[in-house]
Amino acid sequence: MAEFRYIARELSGLQVEGTVSAASEREALGSLAARNLFPVSIDLADAAKAHLANKRRRVPARVLAVFYAQLADLLRAGVPLLRSLDLLVKQTRQMTLKLVVQEVRDQVADGTRLAEALRQHPTVFNELTISMVRAGEEGSFLEESLQRIADFTEHQEELKGRVIGAMAYPAFLVVVGTLILVGMLIFFVPKFEPLFDTMRAENRLPWATIALLNISGAIQHYGWILLIALGGSVFFGQNYFSNEIGRRRFDEIRLKIFGVGRVIRSLAVARFCRVLGTLLRNGVPILSSLQIAKDATGNRVISEAIAQAADHVSAGRSLAQPLAECGQFPIDVIEMIAVGEEANNLEQVLVGIADKMERQTNRQLDLVVRLLEPLMLVVMAGVILFVLIALMLPIFNSSSMTAVDTSLFRHFC
To answer: d(Cα 70, Cα 75) in Å, to the nearest integer?
Structure first.
């Protein structure tokens, strides 16, 4: 419900002002007509405008994790969903989340399912959250799904904190090193060009020095063009990756990144297996479970592969074979799914796969985080070493040639 501020006239012609709560402007007009008021103007109230502005804002992930955990605890304790949402609205101090939860509560009170109410706020609740809540509603294990979302969100934030902490020092070095490098290319390297003119004319400059001088000249003459091109690339990249085709392409690129792609694929497969296993354990049919679980992967490429596998399953084939044909699932996972289908305990096998892959992925993530710092340091050291070699090598060559000429002169004398 939104608050509308109106200016209207009564039957006597007296002008009155006030606010009215309604779901839409048309409903607000109907409410005024029922009170024999003739509206002169009607507009959203300040609180409603602030609410609409807050809908475009995001909520910190740690705040959302607390919200999911609290809602799961209330439902687990037997508190009805509407009452739970009312309590959370009163307890929540983060204003954006408070307004969003209030609107979700109103929609649920009107008969909307919780997953659909959350879907109305894509900047706050992501696709994984909506899919997990939908799965919990379908399988009657909503509190378990919410707790799983809370744990996953906390894990992601912990991982993000570890990555940021590990990259803070290398990032500082990269920024400072880049500024120093650009300053050298603009102000320091050009001072060496007169010294190298004779060697360049005689074609005796090393290729590294030629490349460094060309880069320095390009930055001096076309630096502003490079900055505009970089800004334009960022702008168009954001626009491209904001649509469905761009997001799918981005998910495809993420799966191909060396080292990181395997971690992303493992997390996606683990989420799929856990959601599918939980749904099957709670009696949801396999086709419905596949349609819900495919959206829980968080990756459009893998979701499309699962959707194709679901089509084959609806035609009577087993699950393992079409998953193997899509090429997105590890061989050992396919084998375990095949064994689970033959032994008629697929739901237990899927949950076991999820536990195993999450443990493996945590170890891989720790390894990637540890390698980030030395890798970035090696890259910066390599760049600086290249600049030094490119500047000093002609000087060493010139000194050696001078020494040779001097020795020859002394020999003939």
So the answer is: 9
CA 156 to chain centre: 11
Interatomic CA distance for residues 174 and 304, integer angstroms:
38
- With a CB cutoff of 8 Å and minimum separation 6, the contacts of 187 are none
For residue 21, give the H/E element and its range.
Answer: strand 15-22
What phi-psi label fits residue 330: left (phi over 0), alpha (psi between -120 and 50 degrees) or beta? beta
pLDDT score for 70: 92
- The helix/strand/coil state of 9 is strand
77 neighbors 50 (Cβ within 8 angstroms): no
DSSP string spanning 140-163? T-HHHHHHHHHHHHHHHHHHHHHH
**Residues near 310 by beta carbon (within 8 Å), at least 6 away in sequence:** 287, 290, 291, 294
CB neighbour list of residue 148: distance below 8 Å, 6 or more residues apart: 132, 274
DSSP letter (8 states) at residue 328: -
Structure tokens at 103: 């609107």
Residue 70 and residue 41 in contact, taking contact as beta carbons nearer than 8 Å: no
- Long-range CB pairs of 176-185, under 8 A, 24+ apart, other chains included: 177/380, 177/383, 177/384, 181/383, 181/384, 181/387, 182/219, 184/387, 185/212, 185/215, 185/216, 185/219, 185/220
Partners of 41 in the β-ladder = 7
- With tokens 């992967």, the residue in question is 297
- The number of CA neighbours under 13 Å toward the Cβ of 163 is 11
User: How many Å apart are CA 268 and CA 249, to the nearest integer?
Assistant: 16
Q: How far apart (Å, rounded) are the C-alpha atoms in residues 35 and 32? A: 5
Residue 10 phi/psi, 5-degree rounding, is: -80, 175
User: 5-35 as b/e, with b when 16 or more CB fall inside 10 Å?
Assistant: bbebeeeeeeeeeeebebeeeeebbeebeee
Q: Which amino acid is at 11?
A: L
Tokens of 238: 């954001």
Token pair in block for residue 178: 């880049």
Mean pLDDT by 10 residues, the chain (413 residues): 73 78 70 79 58 61 90 91 90 86 87 87 82 81 86 77 72 80 80 75 78 82 83 82 80 82 85 83 79 80 86 81 84 89 87 86 76 79 83 72 44 39
**Which are the contacts of 77, defined by CB distance < 8 A and separation ≥ 6?**
none
Query: 6 vs 11, 19, 177, CA distance in Å?
Result: 16, 6, 59
